[in-house]
From TrEMBL:
The lineage of its organism: Eukaryota, Fungi, Dikarya, Ascomycota, Pezizomycotina. This is Sulfatase N-terminal domain-containing protein. Residues 504-696 form the Sulfatase N-terminal domain. SUPFAM superfamilies: Alkaline phosphatase-like. PANTHER family: SULFATASE, SULFATASE N-TERMINAL DOMAIN-CONTAINING PROTEIN. InterPro entries: Alkaline_phosphatase_core_sf, GAG_Ulvan_Degrading_Sulfatases, Sulfatase_N. Pfam families: Sulfatase (PF00884). Keywords: Membrane, Transmembrane, Transmembrane helix. The keyword Manganese does not apply.
Length: 851
């Protein structure tokens, strides 16, 4: 017998795949939201949840009703039905594959951006194994039931057709015979069918009308109809009028009155990009460029004004930490160069790794009880360089302090009590890497829309490379060309380096927009004309291991030491990005056991990649030592975001549309060998990086008088606080005079105002994280109806193992009051209002409009 004889008739199999794939995807869809829905409501509204799928399946069965196409119409019908089935099969396979990888569901609205980005496609293709497996399982299931399913659904449709046609036939034949009721022509079976149909239709209609829109409208979405979201991508534009500033919800502000504009005396004739709002008056910009820079029919400037920001809290009037005051006064701190290291997926719990965190407890729990002591000591050896950079004490299983052993690639020779600032409690402004980099490099908060739409707009504050270029332009050419030029008169050179592609999500455009003069990325490592080409194989879908940059870094540091150049280097690591591969010659370890009921392979790979990057940081510090510039270099280390694993949250992993706290806690270190060691407990963000660097440069005397004057003028313009002064989690204004002066349109400001922190949740336009520095409460605020509100108290639940969820802010407040009390409810109410205000405000100051 021919193998082909085992193949099912094509129309029957295609319909079966449509049926199986569509219903399987819907069951998965409902299952992901099952825990958040009252069971009674779910059971009551379940028929309406499946109604769209029923309509799609019915449509597919009608299109595929001809087993042997004979006419053009039949061929067309079969082709359309087959295409519908294949699309549904493929989309369902992707949904299951994505779920198996991350525990989440696909957001089709964001898929358009990935499909149009070659680098992003590699991320999608990395999950091809699970997608293929899901596709195979769905295909086998469809093959197993294709014959019976096709026949049963055909008979059902035939019965409906017969009843409807019988109804119309009886009505038609009795026209003109008013003496005889047309209902009398129906037999009992037909009447029963009609009654059932009317009852079902009426019930479904009633349930559809009365069910809550949130979340049931989202849950009822059916494949392939939900794929239409992929074609609704909107892009940024700065054309047209910007929205007026939204009213701040916690108190009313005075009506904006534009200040008298004048060009700053410190601004050179031809400043670099990034200084638009200082170059021309708002009115000039409106007249010469376009109306987007000026509010139509009003006098409110569309430029960002930090002094009109109701959330801005400045600590520049505070005293510098006393140990730093002495070091600056004694001219012990010299900052000729700045190195900003951004750690991909850099979690604070791993910088350095130490006992006492929810993550560490989960890692130890993966081992059997008798092996846990050895496991603790093995885990604590992952990050010796981070331990030296932060100065944090790490205790072994016996409670003894651990000192990095001689196997490390760098040994910190800094005197005891020296090393700089270590911030404990820092959180990222975005779990999407490039939006996070905008905060650390430009001091701006990101745009709450999917992916890097900021590249299509103007960054509303000068980025660090642009600031340094401004310092260059106010110096005369003769000063810059002198061979024996004073250190403070030397030109700055801004360089960006990473060993992976810069083409993902328009990163190359962003780097250019930020003002980097030079860059070294994957294209340099593979170019035939490059000085140093990559000698190893790529380790992931983005590019190479960081060690391929070694000769480029050595050249840059030597140039800084010998060529009278001041260097700003930005370097982003990448090995700690999924899939967490390391070079073949790297000695990987088995850090986790098999306990806990989950697979620990992903976390184990991640820990090995963390160990690799920790060693790479040691190499960078060694290169600074060897070039002779370590004592005059400020090294800033920050994580772009964290990385959630099953050990943190079994339900949802990764960063995509995952608001878990493990994606937000990041390290933040300002390392200088001649600065006293200070541990800072503050819920700061990367917004503090530029203010802190500028403040350090000014206070340490590392800028000449003119540059120092510029930096001092620009410091108050940034939204973040300087971390060489005590961080203000809140400000109090309890005096009668002070409170009277802060009345706005009859509504008094509160006596205590908090520092609000916002975090974009990857991919940007679906959810934000809202916290206030100094308070333990946290809100994940949905921007779309398909996501829940999530509240947590990080003092009681630091690992967010037992969060409170609800589909509305009202329901969430009720649940929070029962568990956490009225103070938490008051904060939650304010957080919801401020978060929604912040989203509108960010779109306004970025000049974002959807095209």
């Amino acid at each position: 017998m021919s193998p082909l004889s085992y193949l099912p008739p094509l129309p029957q199999f295609l319909f079966s795949t449509l049926f199986v794939s569509g219903l399987a995807a819907k069951i998965l869809h409902i299952g992901l939201h099952f825990h958040s829905l009252p069971f009674l409501y779910l059971a009551l509204y379940s028929p309406t949840l499946f109604l769209p799928d029923f309509l799609v399946i019915t449509c597919g069965r009608i299109l595929l009703r001809f087993p042997t196409p004979e006419t053009r119409l039949q061929w067309l019908s079969t082709c359309i039905g087959g295409l519908l089935s294949l699309i549904t099969w493929g989309a369902a396979s992707i949904q299951f594959g994505f779920f198996l990888q991350t525990g989440a569901e696909v957001a089709w609205a964001a898929s358009n951006s990935f499909l149009s980005d070659p680098a992003a496609m590699k991320i999608l293709l990395s999950g091809i194994t699970t997608v293929s497996a899901a596709s195979t399982v769905l295909g086998f299931a469809a093959w197993a039931i294709y014959g019976r399913l096709y026949n049963v659904t055909g008979l059902a449709l035939q019965g409906v057709q017969d009843s409807v046609m019988g109804l119309f036939k009886a009505r038609y034949t009795l026209i003109g015979q008013p003496s005889k009721s047309w209902l009398a022509t129906f037999d009992l079976r037909t009447m029963r069918r009609i009654a059932i149909f009317v009852s079902l239709f009426t019930s479904l209609l009633f349930l559809q009308i009365t069910r809550p829109a949130i979340p049931y409208n989202h849950i009822s979405g059916a494949l392939p109809l939900t794929l239409l979201d992929a074609f609704t991508k909107k892009s940024a534009t700065d054309q047209g009028c910007r929205e007026p500033a939204p009213n701040f919800p916690l108190w009313n502000r005075d009506k904006f009155t534009p200040a008298q504009w004048s060009r700053p005396s410190w601004l050179p004739e031809n400043p670099p990009s990034g200084f638009s709002r200082w170059v021309k008056s708002p009115l000039e910009r409106a007249e010469e460029d376009n109306a987007a820079y000026y509010l139509c029919n009003d006098a409110e400037s569309a430029f960002f004004n930090p002094f009109d920001d109701p959330l801005k809290i400045s600590n520049l009037g505070g005293e510098i930490y006393e140990p730093l005051q002495k070091a600056f006064k004694d001219h012990a701190v010299s900052i000729d160069h700045v190195v900003l290291l951004t750690l991909e997926s850099g979690r604070k719990e791993l910088f350095p790794i130490h006992q006492g965190t929810p993550m560490f407890d989960a890692l130890v729990a993966s081992h059997k009880a008798h092996a846990q002591k050895d496991a603790i000591d093995r885990l604590l050896k992952i990050t010796p360089v981070a331990q030296m950079l932060t100065g944090e004490t790490v205790l072994d299983s016996n409670g003894q302090a651990i000192k990095p052993d001689n196997a490390t690639k760098w040994h910190d020779r800094t005197a005891d009590g020296m090393g700089g600032l270590n911030v404990r409690g820092a959180v990222t402004g975005s779990s999407l890497t490039f939006k996070s980099i905008l905060g650390s490099h430009c001091g701006v908060q990101p745009l709450p829309v999917d992916l890097l739409e900021e590249t299509q707009l103007e960054i509303y504050q000068p980025c660090l490379p642009q600031l340094l270029e401004l310092f260059n332009r106010v110096k005369s050419s003769s000063e810059l060309s002198s061979e024996e030029v004073d250190a403070l008169e030397r030109p700055w050179k801004s360089v960006f380096m990473q060993s992976i592609t810069d083409e993902y999500d328009r990163q190359n455009e962003m780097n250019e927009q930020m003002g980097f003069e030079e860059h070294v990325v994957k294209s340099n490592l593979t170019s035939m004309t490059s000085k140093y080409r990559a000698s190893s194989k790529e380790i992931n879908y983005f590019g190479y291991a960081e060690t391929e940059l070694r000769p480029y870094l050595q050249d840059l540091f030597n140039e800084a030491a010998h060529n009278n150049t001041r260097v700003f280097l930005s370097h982003v690591t990448s090995t700690t990005h999924h899939p967490w591969n390391t070079p073949r010659d790297f000695d990987t370890q088995k850090y986790l056991g098999r306990e806990g009921g989950i697979k620990h392979d992903a976390m184990n790979s991640y820990l090995n990649s963390v160990n690799f990057v920790d060693g790479w940081l040691g190499e960078i510090m060694s290169m600074l030592d060897e070039s002779g510039i370590a004592n005059s270099t400020l090294v800033v280390i920050v994580g772009d975001h964290g990385q959630a694993f099953a050990e943190d949250n079994k339900d949802l992993t990764g960063t995509y549309e995952n608001g878990h706290i493990s994606n937000f806690r990041v390290p933040l270190v300002f390392r200088h060998p001649h600065m006293p060691r200070i541990d800072i407990d503050a819920n700061a963000t990367s917004l503090s990086i530029i203010p802190t660097i500028l403040d350090m440069l000014v206070q340490s005397g590392s800028l000449n008088d003119h540059d120092s004057d510029i930096a001092s003028h620009l410091l108050p313009e940034y939204q973040g606080q300087s971390l060489i002064r005590p961080f203000l989690s809140s400000i109090n204004d309890t005096s009668i005079e002070g409170r009277e002066s802060r009345k706005h349109e009859g509504n008094e400001m509160p006596a205590t105002r908090y520092q609000w922190n916002f975090g974009i949740i990857n991919g940007g336009g679906s959810m934000i994280s809202v916290t206030t520095a100094g308070l333990p409460y946290r809100l994940v605020l949905p921007l779309k109806n398909e996501f829940e509100y999530i509240f947590s108290d990080l003092d009681k639940d630091p690992g967010e193992l037992h969060v409170t969820k609800a589909w509305s802010i009202g329901a969430l407040k009720k649940a929070v009051k029962e568990e956490y009390g009225s103070d938490a409810v008051k904060w939650l109410e304010s957080a919801g209002k401020v978060g929604k205000w912040w989203v509108r405000q960010q779109r306004r100051i970025w000049g974002y409009r959807e095209a």
